[in-house]
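Box 3.1. Reading complex inputs
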Amino acid sequence: MSSNQSYYVPESSIWPIVGAVGMLLTFFGLSTVLVNQSNGDPTTTAWVVFTVGALVLVYMITGWLRDVIRESRAGLYDAQMDRSFRQGMSWFIFSEVAFFAALFGSLFYIRFFAVPWLGGEGAKGTANMLWEGFQAQWPLLNNPDNSQFAGPDAVIGPWGLPLLNTLILVTSSITLTLSHKALKYDKRKPTIYWLAATVALGAIFLFFQIEEYIEAYSHLHLTLDSGIYGSIFFLMTGFHGLHVLLGGIILFVVLMRLIKGHFSAHDHFGYEAGAWYWHFVDVVWIMLFVFVYVI
Amino acid sequence: MSAVADAHAADHHDHGPAKGIGRWLFTTNHKDIGTMYLVFSFAMFLAGGAMAMIIRAELFQPGLQMVEPAFFNQMTTMHGLVMIFGAVMPAFVGLANWMIPLMVGAPDMALPRMNNWSFWLLVTGSLILMSTLFMDGGAPNFGWTAYAPLSTTYGPDSTTFFIFSVHILGISSIMGAINVIATIINMRAPGMTLMKMPMFVWTWLITAFLLIAVLPVLAGAVTMLLMDIHFGTAFFDAAGGGDPVLYQHIFWFFGHPEVYILILPAFGIISQIIPTFSRKPLFGYTSMVYATAAIAILSFLVWSHHMFTVGLPLPGELFFMYATMIIAVPTGVKIFNWITTMFRGSISFETPMLFAIGFVVLFTVGGLSGVMLAIAPADFQYHDTYFVVAHFHYVLIPGAIYGIFASVYYWLPKWSGRMYSEALGKAHFWLSFIGLNIAFFPMHFLGLAGMPRRYADYPIQFANFNQVSTIGAFLFGASQLLLVFIVYKAVKSGPKADAKPWDGAEGLEWTVPSPAPYHTFEQPPRVD
């Protein structure tokens, strides 16, 4: 419901149209790169278009955020505006939940329906006639057609790096909460230190994740094209990794703003949005650890 | 109106729109953005309509007359994509932009800059999608559903561009939906409680929830297509342990809520218009709200009724059959409520009301053929025939499109400050009504007789109905040009409209002058 103060409506902004042009260049360039690569055509021009587009997007995001931060610090945003931002961020995270739900749904369908049916199980087990003698197992090491999709030698076990990464990410959620608590009590130094620790833990997580991928590719022959296990493994952990990267960048920006003296004990939506996102990424990882690595 | 006047004094920025092209490129004004959405979606409607005309012209006679089968397949695919993602969804977002702030007494949408970005990303995505028509190997040709392996192993090069255009259009729609929800939850005028909201606002709130829940699922599906095409993954390839049917499951988990995204806002529009021209309050407002919510929830549980013939386990066939038939209950509640609203009302038949009544009658036809298709054993006969084409065109044209037409006639006086020509509006309605029934009713018979969809050619026994259908399609298509003329004439030289041109209309949007000033409700009105 409205307060008496009038809602701040920015008069006009160049950033949306700049962002739209950036998206056009980025994705037209990226599509052309992929298609030309598949056809063996040169990709240099397409890479240039893609890079220009990506730079335009970076320019747009920094400019847009600069405007928002300036307006926020000028006190143009009232409580109602704050609620709009909160609504926006919550529903954005909900859309991310829906995206990961689709990936988890795919994992379960493959694991509990598609692969067993190919192995001859149940009423739809007639699918076994496609590749007779195919044995269903999970993780799938021998694919139905190993000449087309050479299966991996082994998969990443859960109790090494993945367990370590779980501990790292859970710890990072705790340090983030400590930082948030400190901010609420207006203790700026612990706020900054705990947040810096959170960002550092996120970076370590990503480092280990890359280690794990190198191990998978170079020693286990677990790759994107090693059949369905590798496909779903890299899709899910890869998208999660991208989200850790994005969440880490958000928190890093928040950290820089804290150091510059932004945010107060009772007014720090930008901080909270980043924190919500980080906790969301953490929860997704725990689900991944359980359903992709352990079970 | 005093709220508008007071706002002038309290405000801190310039009041009129900016001059020149910059007004449109950089705008944060919900009315400007709504107008851009509506104009753009109508342009896409004409483009998609032109593709439909190519399809129908080719099918006028058996044999190949006009186009190659490969191009025909591109036309069926692009027609579907352009109409769904370029015409109907953006038109509803345009209506939401224009009307929701006016209906809930808000000064603008909750997040005005993001609103503009949503619109320009729609243009970006549409440009990439349309550009595929000019590429080597042609546009996507696998149907709007993009089933693997048609889109992976056998797809043209442009599939990659199609995938990224779907991503961008999805981002645009999600941001639009977030904006709608934030506006409705956070920006209502004091006293505008949830259960006092106009039905159009309610249906859009639920539609926005559906959009945010399922568009990311579509993004996931097409991302897996991209991975299968370019990165050697095996999601939809059984040789690597994947399953092409997985694509269909993910796609339709998006796809079925999507068809309610295409109809729920129209339900809301009709629920505004029928009470106005019956001069009675909407019958069963509360049950309308709950029925809309029930339809939305059920839409997540019925996706496999698009896949009855794909080889589902028997319990799956049964579950999805019964779950689908249950949707007829809340839909029936709505139909009965609209009819009961009209019952013993002082009805007058202005153009918006004609389209609304046309909606109720013809949407029911499409709804009933939907129940027929829901019956799994019967669907084995109808699946992928023209019966399905008839069914979804009966729910999409007299449903979604009539809803949009009705709202354009209903709110054009508010947008432009001018009245349209009632005689021309009625002519548009009757030409459309006759054209669409001639075009699509014979398709039921073609489908029952076994004519499959998505072929450029057919055996000679289907020729008569196809010729009739093509004539109707061209009549319908041509009569849409009349709409361009009607709107142009009204805006240019129509008689001035009152603040409330319809005597039976209720709601905050009629308390502001016509045309609505550039800024409205900067101080919120009080709703009792």
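In summary: The first helix of chain A runs from residue 15 to 39.
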